[in-house]
Description:
The protein is of the alpha+beta class.
Amino acid sequence: MSDRSEAAEYRIVADGETARERLDRLLSRSLDGLSRMRIKALIVDGRARIAGRTVTEPSYRVKPGEVVELSVPPAEEAAPRAQPIDLTVVYEDGDLIVVDKPAGLVVHPAPGNPDRTLVNALLAHCGGSLSGIGGVRRPGIVHRLDKDTSGLLVAAKHDDAHAGLSEQFASHDIQRRYRALVWGVPAEGQGRIEGAIGRNPHNRKKMAVVARGGKPAVTHYRLLRAFGRQAGLLDCRLETGRTHQIRVHLTSIGHPVMGDRLYARARRQRREALPADIAAAVADFGRQALHAAELGFRHPISGEALHFHSDLPDDMGTLLHLLARMRKG
C-alpha cells in the first residue's frame, strides 16, 4: 500500500488458490478493514484495475497471475450541511428514500451551487445516516437528474444499501422511463438510439454523440402523442445512464427536447409554426421539458421488486394541454 494522501493503493496478485475467484471476494479476503459491500461499491465506482484495465463487475473471475490494483479514497465526513428543504417523499424505509425532485433543484453541491441542494435536504430529512455514503460531495446519491429535469430519484441511507443500488445501476438492472416533449415528430412511432456519449470537442459544457472516447449509450423511445408535425410527447427508456443522455440522443435524431437551452435552440420556423400563445409559452418555459416518470429496482437489502410512478409536473402538464388544444384546432 502506498502512502498517498488522496487514496490508498492496494496491489493483489492472484495465485493458484485465488485464481477463478470473484474479484470482490478475493479483495475482501485479502484486505483488512474493508467490508465486502464497501469493496463492491469501490469496484462498481471504477476503482479496481487489472492489467491497466478498469473492471467494474464485482463478479469478475480473476485469472492466475493477474494483478489487481484497488484505489481506496480516504474516509471523510460529508461536507454539506443539513438544510431544511421541502421534499416530496414517494417511499422511505430504513435503507433508502425515493423522492420526486422538482425542476430547479440541484442534486449535489458543486461549484456555483454550494448548498440548497437535494443532498442538503436529505441530510436534514434523514439525519446523520447519510454521512459519508457515496463520497464527500454526494452522501447517499447513486444517480442524479439534471437541475432542470424533474422526477424520481433514489438515495441510500447506509453503505450496504448504497453498494447494492450502485451495483444495479452499473449492471443496467434499473428500470427508468422519462416523458419528453420534443420538437417535431419522429417518422417512426418508436425506435432505438445507440451512440457513444462523450464531451463535445467544441464545447466542454456540452455532451455529444462521439465516434471515439465516449461511453456506450442506448435510449429507446416511443411516440405517445403527436401534436400536428410540430411537437410530440415521447416515452423514453434508458438502457444506460450517461450525462444528458436523452437530451443528446434526441437532439442527434433531429428531435431535441423543448425548452432545452443547451441543446435545442429553437429554429425560427419551428416557433413560427406554432400559434402565438403556444410559441410564447414554449419560449417562457424556462427548462427542458423532461420528466423522470418511472423508476424500478430491487430493494438492495430485502430483494423486493419496487416500482414507482410520477405524474407530469404542472408546468409540463400546462404545456401539454396547450399543444393538445392546438391539435384539436
